[in-house]
Design brief:
The protein is α/β, with parallel strands linked by helices. The termini are close together. It binds 2'-deoxyinosine 5'-triphosphate and magnesium ion. Belongs to the HAM1 NTPase family.
Length: 197
Amino acid sequence: MHKIVLASNNAGKVKEFNRLLEPLGWIVIPQGELGVSEAEEPHGTFIENALAKARHAALATGLPALADDSGICVHALGGKPGVLSARFAGEPKSDAGNNQKLIAELAGQPDRRAYYYAALVLVRHADDPQPLIADGICAGEIVDEPRGDGGFGYDPHFWLPAFGKTVAEISTEDKSAISHRGKAIRALVAKLQEAGL
Ligand SMILES: O=c1nc[nH]c2c1ncn2[C@H]1C[C@H](O)[C@@H](COP(=O)(O)OP(=O)(O)OP(=O)(O)O)O1
Ligand SMILES: [Mg+2]
């Protein structure tokens, strides 16, 4: 059960999941290493897309699969880019383009509140009737000037008032402790333990 395929092609996520799960004795294999293609993400909710990604990787590999669908939800933009965060600035996916578009859309906007959200789904096999589900939220504010070179995605623009830093400036340990993904993975592991899996 603890040898799983990670249903993600995002190198930043892969690093974070390795850090979070390897200390627990999990063997986490990124789907790219097993030749799994990128799944479609056709749905309007994070949870549905995470389930689709997990089933896709489990079907292709025959292994249990863990997927993460995540994004940034900005209050002044009515929750956008949300589920479309990875492709906010169009195809091909580009962190730089997405960040530029985010800052442009918030020009002159005093309300800077935003949160990261991650939905995780673990399936034991492709048609698992009881996927395990967990999620997590990390609140912050969008800043125009990028700061720091850690993390990935929107992190250089995601300000954490409690740290006086962006997510790209805090340590990986601190990011694991406070991030949407860190919270979600701890909740998922707790559920697995409760279920005796
Ligand atoms: O901790 C984070 N720090 C910064 N940015 C983040 C974070 N977590 C999610 N994000 C952003 C990146 C991407 O723009 C979108 C996820 O999109 P999402 O479709 O879930 O991932 P993806 O396409 O990059 O890889 P994959 O689907 O193969 O897992 O939200
Ligand atoms: Mg994606």
